What does this fold into?
Amino acid sequence: MIGISKLYCGTVEASDPLRYGRASGELPSHLLQFASDKKPVVVWNATSACNLRCVHCYASEGKASGELTTKQGLDLIEQLTDYGAPVILFSGGEPTLRKDLPVLIERAVKSGRRAVISTNGTLITQDMAMRFADLGLSYIGVSLDGMEEVNDEFRGVKGAFRDAMQGIYNSMHQGIKVGLRFTMNKRNVSEIPGIFDLMKNEGIPRICLYHLVYTGRAKELMEEDLTLEQTRQTLDLIMDRTKEMVDAGHGVEVLTVDNHADGPYVYLRMKAEGSPKAEEVLELLRMNAGNSSGLGIGCISWNGEVYPDQFWRTKVLGNVTQQRFGEIWDNRENEFLMKLKNKKEHVTGRCRECRWLDVCAGNFRARAEAATGDPWGVDPACYLTDEEIA
It folds into this structure.
């Protein structure tokens, strides 16, 4: 994740310790309290069931099958607690379709984990939001793909936007922090200004804007990805709109996800603008250390399979029903996993020669493999010019 509001606008955000305090290397004194071995934030796709059928879903299932039982889920949370994973993100499918989700959230919170959910928001009733608040759920990320007409087309269900907004209202009314998740592509990039307006008008404090990753159903959308020039223009728009909101006193957190070329791009723009904080931003980007698949982010599927991240479904590292998560994650006999933990030594082409390798770590390997067949090949979504990386 690249914190646009943090880096470009200088805001202080709750997730700073996770994003900058767990990086390897020397840390400034004010971040030393957060320094530790980098334990992964874990996405648990707790179910494959979903009430929508989004065209870009990385899970691409739709019906529940082979889910971990409640007992197995509680054991998984114990495993993640023992290993020191700081955050458990309950995802899906649609996680609110699991009837035992409150039980799982309660165990995670009581175990000292930060529990968050990623949801389409359409099923969050007033009662459900109240229960989540009582359990100590700290964040709900709601996926939108644009304003009503565009969103409902992407989501495959008419009324999905209206129901998602009601879920957002219900959650915010209970004091739960809510953010938006938006996946950018040619079909909906023109919706971004409207989404920023929605945030301003409704007081929604956070948004994660995802670059498209070609996995699950999104494989069929590869040609719908933004061109490199469109991506640059969109980053400029995001930076401009974020600054407008921050300058106007709106306390927003804006992040881009799944394209670590965004980091150097932000730095280069700040440098071109003569910002006195440009070099400080570069140091923060080095602390963040770029793509964290297999290191600072991990994923567990509904059947217990462990992946390097939530998009890379072709790389199964093990199964938590057969082996403890920590043993899987630290398995030095897994040659691919060990390479992934030091991916900067294995990427090829312009990634290997790029001067931003310590900032980007070779960008998104799942996308590189989907596009080229080579997990160490060039990520085609890198939009930096040859001059900018030299």
In short: The chain has a mean pLDDT of 91. The chain has 17 helices and eleven strands.
